């Protein structure tokens, strides 16, 4: 127990006992004062230190005064201004004239105790009142009982608090009926007889009282009215609004609305409530050690938002590299030194007032007990009571800067050689060269041996050292490491104090200040603004410190930022601020107006709000105007803003009414809809239950349709609002159609011929659907069309069946689809069966149907409307839709109109890139390859990706390193990473509308040494230039490495194998030629004479393909799945990029040679897997880069389960040669030939942070196999020679000579490779 370190609570109490904070505060502070010329003025102030009960001899504070920021020089003989014993300032006689105002200004009390420090009070404004002047005076008036009257009295604004009213020369007592306005005027509301009399306004100043003229108020007979009072709001003066107990929540726009006949007029005013600053969190006292970083927190509120300034010992704190203002309110002090001790004050100020709060900082010596009593100082926990009996750690080793940027440096190190304990923690001390402030940063957990130092200055030199400490205390310091941050172009900083005010419904006025940082003068500013929800940012140049944006949308929220430009380019952008333009009356009528007869005396009116872009404000209500028949007089009803229907009752029976609706905002009424007509019932029908069953149902089948007719229920007293027709093959529930209650006929279209359909018919009303009636029919065969001359009436035998009208309606014309946003399209059309004014006066309605052009989603959607337009919402972004319209009138319908198309606008991607994987690059442990797939919801064409990577998954986004990638790439390599380090990767997709969400973090750890990595892939020479590349050693016998000498050795092996192949071919051909009989020669000659274009004997079926056809120009390998199966199945998957990649085939080659074989290589012909011998690849070539049309890929992998490499062989210009099957030699890859991107990766996602490891590339990707001509199915050398023998017997000696010439050309190419 004796060796246990004291707890933090004990240390805190011990420190407070040994080094207590010294209280120092103001008991009284000055306040704003209104003084009168020639009269005395007193500004109170009193400061105290210590606790009077425990410290009766506490030192007294010395009080001084500042006026307008400058100390007052109060001479002893100055009898007019003096400081009283308690610290207050007394001005015995205020001096004030037009040209001499020595006493008016801002005062501040400053108290000092030499042994403690200095504190400053809040500021107070001393204002000297002027001479009273009346700009308007009360006038005589006569009002009736219950009316209201305003008596004017406009005086100087500073004298309004001194104004009062008298009636009959007696002081007037104010009440809820008698209210004095802020400008001094008197409002008399709900007048009574007692209010009659003479009124006058008076201003009491230090001099004689200033009195206005008297005015007689006469009360005439009338009726009194009740005062409207609701909570804290009261209506006074006939129309004025009085608010009691004003709070900040009462701020806003108040509207006074009046209905005059059919119009609504409105006047509005904005109420701004100013609230003085108030502390939500005051700065707290802090203990700290030197070199530490501390922060004084100060949270304030108020309206308008207060500004915060910091003062240290009475002097203003100027922000610098070591004194920083954080989040506009908090003060951060970096790298403490002893001189930083003292009192710090937070001064908050706005237009309504100012406040201050202070805190004390005490710097502890390193030998003193340390701790964190208030949680402010970040002191390492090991700095407790040192144990002199135990050893401390030695110096940490190998301190290096593993990552250096412009503003941050990452340090890593190794543990001390002599840790002398477990769970070591580390402290990093650093300072900028040329300064004496050394800062400290501690590791976050024991054993951590890396730290990132942020917020450094660009192009600056820093010194770093690391100290380890164990339970016995601090150990030895490491050697000093000097590191310079990278430089950056000195562009302007953000423009401070950016403000935006909407001046009209279509304009916003901006203002800002000059940036505080930057290299050179600001040349211009650029204002970026973006409408909320559209993600399309626009910009405009501004040459000054203010600009007015014009032509904006009404009542629309905009996001605005400003960027300053100097000679180096654009600077740091300001933060986004939002502003909403002022509202206005709606510019479009409500949509989709429908009227439905409810009964004989009421009609239900329904509608949808105006389009979002035309509302121009918050819809506060709707006005419904209606009239009877052709009368011009109108009636009106008003609904609330969210109500989209209204039942109009009290109407006459069997009467036609017309309706139209307009939307209302606080600014007034917008345009109204077109008139819509409905006729009330002659008599009221019963709707207490569902309708009865229809009295009859008849069907008449045609080839592709069935004509259905019916009669209504026999009980005519029940309300029928429509009919539901159900039909389907074998079941009536497959499709459902609803028709109007007046309709008696319907044709079901688009049916299958010779099919048995079941049809059901139900009447319905608002209660529900009635009992169905069933019928079935079999459509006619395709070869049996209906006679068009047959009268439809003859098909139905019931005498009460009405005669259907065979004349169809004309389909709508001029269908247009107007795209409004990423999910809304407005469909409009014209109806040629309407008059020229296109006014709908009957009960027709239109059906709009739409579908996408996506094959997998061909489902049709429909909607009904009684207008000539319809808003289709809820669509998918960046999707093509087709629209068509048909019209229905009674039992007549039209065919579908011509289609119109519209593609919704793009919007930002709503999902992140998927299937993100990270793999190491073969033979390059410091290089990784990131692969991904596009987002599933791209919402537009992907124009690019941004890869973020960092060693700290919790770092801020702006601290991650970024790598931009073009939109058509799905893979990217990142080089020069640190070995044995965990990196985190995120990817973000971008389209023309902006950035989508980031993917989940994927972490990957680089290998521990430069020799790590898996077996090298097979490589092929893919270019005629013969550029050698560093292939992997997986297929190279003998363990060849990647040095320059070994490259020559590889080439020598290739030449040796080639020479051996040539010798075998020549010997075999020579032996076969000697055994050729004269009969065979004649047969070959006859074959040559009959077909001179063929040089091979027989057809392609007689010739076995050689082991590897060497093409002269292009050959491509694809990655394959490293399947653990012993006999994997290979598929033929050629993937040409374009039609230009497939060149014409040499006509001299038989067709069978153009078809790659799908047979795998026999096991005896497969080379061994040399996973330990690798070749470094040249710069610019990596396995997963995207190949272009001119540079096909030539990379692959082969090292698992004995599988051979697969390749897609392009059949272009093959050499007329063949080879003896043998183990392939070393294969190289041209650096100019990157491979195809990876395919989509599949697999369950188990964790939010995905894990990638070295060597998993082949296992996580599905195979992308393409074929290469396989080896013969006889592995033995004797069988191969026999094959060669059988092939070579079909050649003449002159042909063999020609083949030898080709082989000599090949040798020249190999020599060229060697020399290159």
Write the layout of secondary structure elements.
Elements: H1 8-18, E1 24-28, E2 33-36, E3 41-43, E4 46-49, E5 62-67, E6 70-71, E7 81-83, E8 89-91, E9 105-113, E10 117-129, E11 134-136, E12 141-144, E13 149-151, E14 154-155, E15 163-167, E16 170-171, E17 178-180, E18 186-188, E19 197-203, E20 210-211, E21 215-220, E22 228-230, E23 233-236, E24 240-243, E25 252-260, E26 263-271, E27 275-281, E28 286-289, E29 294-296, E30 299-303, E31 307-312, E32 315-316, E33 323-326, E34 330-333, E35 342-350, E36 353-364, E37 397-404, E38 409-414, E39 425-432, E40 439-442, E41 450-453, E42 461-470, E43 473-477, E44 481-484, E45 499-504, E46 507-511, E47 524-531, E48 537-542, E49 546-549, E50 557-566, E51 569-570, E52 577-580, E53 591-599, E54 602-608, H2 612-615, E55 621-628, E56 635-640, E57 645-648, E58 656-665, E59 668-672, E60 676-679, E61 694-701, E62 706-713, E63 722-729, E64 735-740, E65 745-748, E66 756-764, E67 773-778, E68 813-819, E69 825-830, E70 845-852, E71 861-865, E72 869-872, E73 880-889, E74 892-893, E75 900-903, E76 914-921, E77 924-933, E78 942-950, ...
Parallel strand pairs: 2-10, 12-21, 28-36, 83-86
Antiparallel strand pairs: 1-4, 3-8, 5-6, 5-9, 7-8, 9-10, 11-14, 13-18, 15-16, 15-19, 17-18, 19-20, 19-21, 22-23, 23-24, 25-26, 27-30, 29-34, 31-32, 31-35, 33-34, 35-36, 37-38, 38-41, 39-40, 39-42, 42-43, 42-44, 45-46, 46-49, 47-48, 47-50, 50-51, 50-52, 53-54, 54-57, 55-56, 55-58, 58-59, 58-60, ...
């Amino acid at each position: 127990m004796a060796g246990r370190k004291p707890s933090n609570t004990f240390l805190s109490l011990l420190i407070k006992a040994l080094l207590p904070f010294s209280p120092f505060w103001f008991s009284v502070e000055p306040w704003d004062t209104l003084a009168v010329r020639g009269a005395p003025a007193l500004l109170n102030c009193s400061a105290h230190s210590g606790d009077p009960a425990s410290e009766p001899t506490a030192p007294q504070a010395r009080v001084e005064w500042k006026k307008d920021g400058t100390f007052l020089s109060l001479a002893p003989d100055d009898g007019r201004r003096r400081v009283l014993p308690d610290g207050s300032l007394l001005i015995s006689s205020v001096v004030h004239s037009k040209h001499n105002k020595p006493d008016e200004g801002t005062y501040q009390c400053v108290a000092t105790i030499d042994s403690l420090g200095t504190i400053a009070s809040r500021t107070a404004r001393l204002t000297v009142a002027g001479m009273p002047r009346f700009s308007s005076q009360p006038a005589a008036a006569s009002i009736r009982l219950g009316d209201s009257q305003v008596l004017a009295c406009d005086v100087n604004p500073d004298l309004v608090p001194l104004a009062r009213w008298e009636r009959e020369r007696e002081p007037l007592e104010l009440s809820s009926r008698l209210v004095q306005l802020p400008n001094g005027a008197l409002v008399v509301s709900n007048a009574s007889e007692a209010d009659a009399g003479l009124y006058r306004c008076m201003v009491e100043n230090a001099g004689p009282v200033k009195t206005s003229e008297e005015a007689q108020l006469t009360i005439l007979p009338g009726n009194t009215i009740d005062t409207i009072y609701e909570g804290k709001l009261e209506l006074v003066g006939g129309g004025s609004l009085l608010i009691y107990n004003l709070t900040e929540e009462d701020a806003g726009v108040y509207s006074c609305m009046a209905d005059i006949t059919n119009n609504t007029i409105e006047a509005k005013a904005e109420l701004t409530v100013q609230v003085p600053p108030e502390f939500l969190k005051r700065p707290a006292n802090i203990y700290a050690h030197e070199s530490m970083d501390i922060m004084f927190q100060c949270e304030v509120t108020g309206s308008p938002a207060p500004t915060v300034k910091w003062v240290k010992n009475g002097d203003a704190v100027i922000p610098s590299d070591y004194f920083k203002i954080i989040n506009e309110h908090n003060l951060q002090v970096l790298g403490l030194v002893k001189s930083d001790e003292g009192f710090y004050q937070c001064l908050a100020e706005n237009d309504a007032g100012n406040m201050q709060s202070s805190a004390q900082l005490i710097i502890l010596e390193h030998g003193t007990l340390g701790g964190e009593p208030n949680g402010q100082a970040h002191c390492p926990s090991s700095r407790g009571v040192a144990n002199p009996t135990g050893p401390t750690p030695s110096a940490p080793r190998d301190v290096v800067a593993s990552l250096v940027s412009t503003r941050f440096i990452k340090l890593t190190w190794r543990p001390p050689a002599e840790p002398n304990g477990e769970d070591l923690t580390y402290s990093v001390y650093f300072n900028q060269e040329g300064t004496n402030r050394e800062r400290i940063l501690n590791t976050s957990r024991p054993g951590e041996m890396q730290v990132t130092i942020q917020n450094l200055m660009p192009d600056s030199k820093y010194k770093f050292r690391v100290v380890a400490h164990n339970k016995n205390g601090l150990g030895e310091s490491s050697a000093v490491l000097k590191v310079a941050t990278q430089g950056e172009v000195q562009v302007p900083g953000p423009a401070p104090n950016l403000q935006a005010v909407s001046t009209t419904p279509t304009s916003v006025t901006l203002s800002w200040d000059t940036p505080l940082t930057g290299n050179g003068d600001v040349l211009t500013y650029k204002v970026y603004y973006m409408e909320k929800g559209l993600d399309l940012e626009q910009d405009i140049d501004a040459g000054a410190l203010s600009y007015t944006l014009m032509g904006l949308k009404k009542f629309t929220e905009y996001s605005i930022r400003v960027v300053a430009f100097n000679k180096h380019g654009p600077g740091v952008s300001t933060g986004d601020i939002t502003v909403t333009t002022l509202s206005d009356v709606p510019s479009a009528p409500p949509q989709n107006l429908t009227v439905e007869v409810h009964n004989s005396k009421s009609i239900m009116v329904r509608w949808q709000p105006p389009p979002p872009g035309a509302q121009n404000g918050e819809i506060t209500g709707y006005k419904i105007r209606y009239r009877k028949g052709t009368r011009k007089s109108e009636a009106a009803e008003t609904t609330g803003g969210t109500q989209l229907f209204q039942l109009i009752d009290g109407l006459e029976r069997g009467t036609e009414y017309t309706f139209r609706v307009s939307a209302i905002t606080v600014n007034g009424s917008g345009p109204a809809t077109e008139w819509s007509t409905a006729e009330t019932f002659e008599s009221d029908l019963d709707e207490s239950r569902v309708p009865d069953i229809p009295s009859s149902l008849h069907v008449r089948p045609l080839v592709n349709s069935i004509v259905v007719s019916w009669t209504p229920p026999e009980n005519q007293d029940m309300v029928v609002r429509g009919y539901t027709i159900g039909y389907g093959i074998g079941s009536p529930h497959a499709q459902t159609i609803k028709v109007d209650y007046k309709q008696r006929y319907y044709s079901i279209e688009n049916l299958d011929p010779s099919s048995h359909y079941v049809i059901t018919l139900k009447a319905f009303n608002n209660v529900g659907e009635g009992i169905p009636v069933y019928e079935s029919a079999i459509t006619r065969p395709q070869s049996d069309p209906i006679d068009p001359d047959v009268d439809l009436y003859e098909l139905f035998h019931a005498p009460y069946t009405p005669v259907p009208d065979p004349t169809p309606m004309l389909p709508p014309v001029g269908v247009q689809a107007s795209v409004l946003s990423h999910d809304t399209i407005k469909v409009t059309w014209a109806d040629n069966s309407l008059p020229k004014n296109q006014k709908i006066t009957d009960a027709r309605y239109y059906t709009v149907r739409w579908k996408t052009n996506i094959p997998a989603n061909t489902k049709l959607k429909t909607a009904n409307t009684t207008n000539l337009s319809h808003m289709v919402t809820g669509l998918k972004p960046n999707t093509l839709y087709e629209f068509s319209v048909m019209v229905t009138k009674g039992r007549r319908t039209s065919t579908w109109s011509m289609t119109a198309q519209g593609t919704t606008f793009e919007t930002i991607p709503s999902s992140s890139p998927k299937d993100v994987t990270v793999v190491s690059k073969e033979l390059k442990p410091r290089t990784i390859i990131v692969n991904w797939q596009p987002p599933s919801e791209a919402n537009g064409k992907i124009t690019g990706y941004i890869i973020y990577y960092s060693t700290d998954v919790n770092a801020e986004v702006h601290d991650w390193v970024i790598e931009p990638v073009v939109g058509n790439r799905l893979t990217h390599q990142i080089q020069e990473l640190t070995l044995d380090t965990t990196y985190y990767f995120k990817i973000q997709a971008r389209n023309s509308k902006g950035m989508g969400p980031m993917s989940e973090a994927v972490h990957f750890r680089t290998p521990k040494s430069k020799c790590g990595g898996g077996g090298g892939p097979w490589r092929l020479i893919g270019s005629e230039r013969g550029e050698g590349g560093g292939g992997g050693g997986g297929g190279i016998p003998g363990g060849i490495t990647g040095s320059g000498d070994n490259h020559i050795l590889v080439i020598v092996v290739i030449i040796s194998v080639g020479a051996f192949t040539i010798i075998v071919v020549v010997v075999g051909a020579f032996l076969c030629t000697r055994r050729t009989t004269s009969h065979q020669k004649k047969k070959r000659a006859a074959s040559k004479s009959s077909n001179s274009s063929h040089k091979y004997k027989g057809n392609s079926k007689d010739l076995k393909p050689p082991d590897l056809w060497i093409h002269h120009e292009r050959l491509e390998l694809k990655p394959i799945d490293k399947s653990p199966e012993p006999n994997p199945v290979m598929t033929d998957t050629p993937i040409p990029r374009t039609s230009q990649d497939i060149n014409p085939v040499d006509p001299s080659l038989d067709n069978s040679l153009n078809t790659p074989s799908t047979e795998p290589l026999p096991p005896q012909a497969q080379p061994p897997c040399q996973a330990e011998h690798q070749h470094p690849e040249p710069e610019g070539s990596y396995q997963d880069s995207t190949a272009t049309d001119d540079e096909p890929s030539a990379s692959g992998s082969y090292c698992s389960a004995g599988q051979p490499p697969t390749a897609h062989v392009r059949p272009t210009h093959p050499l007329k040669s063949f080879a003896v099957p043998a183990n392939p030699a070393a294969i190289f890859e041209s650096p100019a030939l990157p491979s195809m991107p990876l395919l989509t990766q599949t697999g369950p996602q188990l964790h939010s942070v995905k894990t990638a490891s070295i060597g998993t590339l082949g296992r996580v990707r599905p195979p992308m196999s393409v074929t290469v001509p396989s080896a013969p199915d006889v592995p033995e050398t004797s069988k191969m020679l026999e094959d060669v023998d059988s092939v070579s017997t079909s050649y003449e000696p002159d042909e063999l000579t020609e083949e030898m010439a080709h082989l000599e050309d090949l040798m020249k190419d190999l020599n060229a490779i060697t020399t290159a």
